[in-house]
Amino acid sequence: MNMAQALLKSTLAAPEPQLQPVAQQTVLSVQDLCKSWNGQHNVLDGISFDLHAGELVGVIGRSGAGKSTLLHVLNGTHTATSGHILSLEDDDDERDITELHGRALRQWRSECGMIFQDFCLVPRLDVLTNVLLGRLSQTSTLKSLFKIFPDSDRARAIELLEWMGLLPHALQRAENLSGGQMQRVAICRALMQNPRILLADEPVASLDPKNTQRIMDALKQVSQRGISVMVNLHSVELVQSYCSRVIGIASGRVVYDGHPASLTEDTLQQLYGDEISQLH
Ligand SMILES: Nc1ncnc2c1ncn2[C@@H]1O[C@H](COP(=O)(O)OP(=O)(O)OP(=O)(O)O)[C@@H](O)[C@H]1O
Description:
binds adenosine-5'-triphosphate; 10 helices; disordered N terminus; alpha/beta
């Protein structure tokens, strides 16, 4: 049995992930999205998919496939070279995120939270303030600098910290936390924005199995509350265990979009090539 067969066997043996009991309301329609750096080849090369409310979508592919770039372009931290990202809401006009600037783009980023592998916390600030900084786009900078947040924001931050088992650390400096704790703070901060979409760029890459499970459990709970979650992962096993859908990218193109249980050996080979032996 080769590595791909072994991997497939182990992943197919994993328990069937529960499908989310939510309506398939489309929140984002990504159409023929391309991104190149300095006029070089397309790092994203015609990506199209619809994202639905309450989905937990795993994004997989070998190193350099374009996973991270995709999340940054969706979030608006990198600009698209061409294509469209349509934000769809019941009570709102359709917005093309690729055309937003200034205040409108900042508003989008508050609706589309992002968490990063390296957490991006402010090390010398306490945990509670780091979480409250998620409200930055809705609070004046001056007020934030002086830590003047409304009681309702503080109550929400405390609620989130309690949910994540971090309340005992609320007044501790972020720099004194473990990696797993920092990532949980980063999730709380992103949720302080009340996002409709949460993007997570390899949030478990440097974490031990216990913390990995905690973070993935948290992301699953977030999606079950109706927030669409897209998470870049290097582990097909995690995708199989947690995600309701997987998008596989190779050389900036979608080569698989479907249920994780339906991934075939051929598709994994197409996605990972000679990196397949490094998968877990
Ligand atoms: N700021 C940049 N300037 C130029 N090229 C870049 C920049 N950021 C990313 N790239 C290139 O874009 C390609 C895709 O990178 P990206 O980080 O999106 O891949 P990835 O699939 O997330 O990889 P990994 O799993 O290793 O994080 C790579 O070839 C990378 O070198």
